[in-house]
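Sample entry follows:

:::
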Amino acid sequence: MIAANKPPAFGLGPIHNCYGCCGYGRGPYHKKKLNSRTDQLHLICGSCYLPKENKEKPLGEDAHFICHDAQTIGVADGVGGWARKGVDAGEYARGLMNHAKKTATGITRSSAAAVDPRKVLSEAYANNAGVQGSSTACILSLDKERGTLHAVNVGDSGFMVFRDNMCFFKSSTQQRSFNCPYQLGNCVGGDCPEAAEEFEVEELRPGDIIVLGTDGLLDNIFASEIEEVIVAYDVSGQDCEELASYIANRALYNSLDKYNVSPFQMEAQKAGREHVGGKIDDITVVVARVLASTKNKNKNIYKKLSIERNTGTTTRAYSLKFQFHIGERHKAFDVPCQNAFLRYTFSCFRNSANLAKRFLECAT
């Protein structure tokens, strides 16, 4: 990825009102409708980050965040061209994602309305103005009531939506030329949030899988390969972190394969450039799985599952929290489990005495 060398976007050059251009013009809007649904939805999320080996920048230049309360996720990729000026673009990306998470959290606490990812991006950009560098960014938010995924993207990060092991939707990227993406930054040639492309995927349904990633993912793996990973993975499970790890490691393997035909190689050939194999880069993957929630608490049985993780040096600690709404009564159960890898099956039913029973099976 190289830094853009374009006229400034903040009034020092011409203002572009056409879609997708640098400056104050608003980016294009894309809308995709999938299938009808009736339940309120929510996301459970997990991530995997594999920075490329660099002793000077062990944290890499990617960053991401997950805000479960706001049902919002995002990724950013600092533009590596800044290294020639002695600037760590990873600092800009990390600051941008940190401010984005704070903004999303603040919106959720002050309003019950769905989070607007464009507002999150704009405020994060403004709050990150004191940091030198530039970065791509892609932020997604779920409107639980409408069952709609709303996203904004600047640059060559992006996301895909999978249903029944098939890719239903893939976002487009923003590039001025090969390997020269749009990028947020306060530098000459930097873009502002208004240039972001906007996406809306309507009528998601339970079981849909959203895969969000930086160019380190998208340059090294095709949608069909992610489909293969999802098929091989036990899709009935809800460990999004594990699925993200599988996808990221598949992309890493491809990036190191000099003989693999990669998306990056194909784009290079279209641009008249010579490149063979994958592209070594930081790889960030965020996986979100769509689940159904029950709108009416007066239904006989309602269950909510959340998994809290604390990653230690050798093992992971899991705490399962089950909440039941049985008629007007409410009960909560905490079931700790120290298994490094957890599999669970959970079922509850109501018998003639109006009692709920629960079963939990854990296996290492």
Q: What stands out?
A: The first strand starts at residue 29 and ends at 33. The helical segments are 89-110, 117-127, 215-218, 223-232, 240-256, 263-270. Residues 303-360 form one domain. The radius of gyration is 21 Å.
